[in-house]
């Protein structure tokens, strides 16, 4: 990333098509690796996250390199732990041209600062199943793996969470 200009910003309505493209690419990769694939996310879903200032992007040389969404509550996945003041990261998706640039580490560093500014004590994320490669990657990026958990109530969650076991991760801020 030497000599590249990197910025983190809220996504805008003009980014919706690129975000959906990145999600579709991620879903294809998940299927190729036989991991639980994301469902197709609709435009309105992403537009709502943008309107609520919960959709973020990393720009490298003014190109969208990576996107993710955040929330401050995630009770169906985190259950009682959701009572802890936390920021939850969802749907990290990196443009294939920018893979290998440690962008999850960049997100983790940003999230620690964002959490502190918002009086949160944890940065958390999850992944469906026991994806060893992704588990190792998240750990290298500073997340502690809390283990595998069977979800109890998945009503209203995206399809890939139904009847799923998830790996949970956190960073103490």
**First and last CA, distance:** 26 Å
Strands across the major sheet, in which order? 1-2-3-4-5-7-6
Largest sheet properties: 7 strands, mixed
Relative helix content: 25-40%
Number of helices: 5
Kindly report the name of the CATH homologous superfamily. Answer: Gcn5-related N-acetyltransferase (GNAT)
* Bulk shape: globular
Describe what you observe in this structure.
The chain is α+β, with helices and mostly antiparallel strands. It has one domain: 3-Layer(aba) Sandwich (Aminopeptidase). 31% of the residues lie in helices and 29% in strands. It has five helices and seven strands. The protein has helices at 16-32, 43-51, 75-78, 103-117, 132-140, and strands at residues 6-10, 55-60, 63-71, 86-94, 122-128, 144-150, 165-172. A seven-stranded mixed β-sheet has the order 1-2-3-4-5-7-6. β4 (86-94), α4 (103-117) and β5 form a beta-alpha-beta unit. 28% of the residues are buried.
Write the layout of secondary structure elements.
Elements (H helix, E strand, L loop, with lengths): L5 E5 L5 H17 L10 H9 L3 E6 L2 E9 L3 H4 L7 E9 L8 H15 L4 E7 L3 H9 L3 E7 L14 E8 L1
Parallel strand pairs: 4-5
Antiparallel strand pairs: 1-2, 2-3, 3-4, 5-7, 6-7
Task: Offer a few descriptive terms.
173 residues; alpha+beta; Aminopeptidase; 7-stranded mixed beta sheet; 31% helix
